[in-house]
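Example record used in the benchmark description.
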Amino acid sequence: MAPRTDDPVAIARDALERHAWQEAYDKLSEADRTGSLTGEGLHLLGLAAYWTAHPVETVEALERAYGAYLEEGNRSSAAMMAFRVGEQHGMRMSISSAQGWMATAERLAQEDPESVVHGWLAWARGLLAWIMEADFEGAIEHYDQALEIAARTGDRNLYGMSLHDKGHALCLLGNVADGRPLLDEAMVAVVGGELDPEPAGYVYCGTIGICSKLGDYGRAAEWTDATLRWCDRQSIPAFPGVCRIHKAELMRLRGSYAKAEEQARLACEELPLFNLYSGLGPANYEIGEVRSRMGDFSAAQEAYSRAHEFGFNPQPGMSLLWLAQGKVEAAAAGIRQSLAESTTNRCARIRILAAQAEIALAAGDVETASSASDELESMVGQNEATSLQAMAACARGAVRLAQGDAAQALSYLQRARQAWQWVEAPYETAQVRLLLAKAHSATGDDDAALMEARAARATFERLGAGPAAERAGQLLGDLAASAERPERVGRAFMFTDIVKSTDLIGVIGDEAWEDLLTWHDQTLRSLFASHGGEVAHPTGDGFFVAFREVRSALRCAVAVQRTLAEHRRAHGFALLVRIGIHAGDATRRGQDYGGADVHKAARIAALAEGGEILASDQTVAEADGGFTISKVREVTLKGIAEPVRVGRVEWR
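Model output (structure tokens):
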């Protein structure tokens, strides 16, 4: 039966059932301007505002619906509206407002012992016990109460969400065998069309999230395919924000870092539009993970800090970042603290234990690493997820290697490599390959060691994981300085050097100089990493960096000079750095490069002034536009027979 053409609420209700969100929003907004909306109409306006990304209007409409229901004498619906308003404030992380509205819902619900609001309040108490106290067992008690009320009242949305949350909590407690079937049953309600869009999105995103925590990527992919088919049938767009976080995590695992970061940043833009501020924590954590792997440590630190600001534990990423920066003691302390706090969340504890083993081995604390590995093995022993099995095998292999049992280490590490390859996780596979290289070397199999180290370096370079590629190159140099056959490669070579440092030390003093030098090193390394540069070796007060592409080298040089200039404007002083760039072929041994074209780049850098970028004109020509070169001149370089044409690359 078609809705009455003169009834805006009936028309909007029909549009919402067809998921025509904008149509419903426009019709109800028009009616609201005339002041003709009842409590139900304002409730529907709040729903339409939510799905059309009007977060403030959503809360306002629901608050007004609460008041309208009270005026109409519909106290049961007013109680439900008070709950919904409290829910929205909770999503916005406005805790005091959320508590006030929930208390109002509780008071009104007492007037009707049979009201379904009691079930929703029980569900909310379970969520609070889970999020605020990590009391998963207590949360399950509340979910059971919510399930009983949902079954009695026939509220399919409450039943589906409570069933999912109970299964999720059981998995976090380590009872995957009992929790996983509940998650699957809740997902059947989603793809079977039993739930409204918002609770359907909640169940789907939560299920994909716990699948990721369990390393069960196959199940996550199956339910994603089924849910997207349901979305197409129901004309519902993919669920906003949160789903992008799970996409980002999977893309990062697969090695698609640029796409992963793009999805995480889009999530940060979309989440506030739907009052899902709590999702900003994990979204920023994903950005931190990508930036850390690419070597942009300052950006990674910033992203992890933002995750923490939104109430998300930035571990183990933060401690592993400190380890990559050489802050071993801070990393060990951070992971110890996180481990002490993760006593009930077994999924989080597994990853923290794996990180603790890695950090402890870097600190030479084999005893702690072995203890972490023992607990890790016991926790995943009955878990079928391949990725978690890989974590445990890698940790055990690394410990065995540190204990001097290379033969036993090989067995564990080969198992870990095979598992990560099956999961299609290239970065983790390459990490294991580095350990395998060390184990093969310890058993005297130099050829196998070189093969694993080369494969690891090639993977890291392909992914753009600069720090890991640098570590792989250093290992290659250690393993095979004399035995490895050198390779000829084409690169764009950059040399940087600080000029007039003595004058600046005299102005700012030794202590400030050390701080400034630390900032210089960290900042330049981050810029090199973000442009795909590979730091070959230190050169006193500067760097020798190799880039696969000329454009990347030139862009990086411009970024360095602009960053230093901005620091100078903001703080009144900054280091003067000269840069020289030349592209050509070189002989690569391990992490280092040699040859005439490397020497040309170094000599060109020596000709530059502070704040200047000099490059050979043939190098700028290879960039094929986008850069302006001036004051081109022909120069004779020491040790180079033929003269070279060089010019200044404009960056201001």
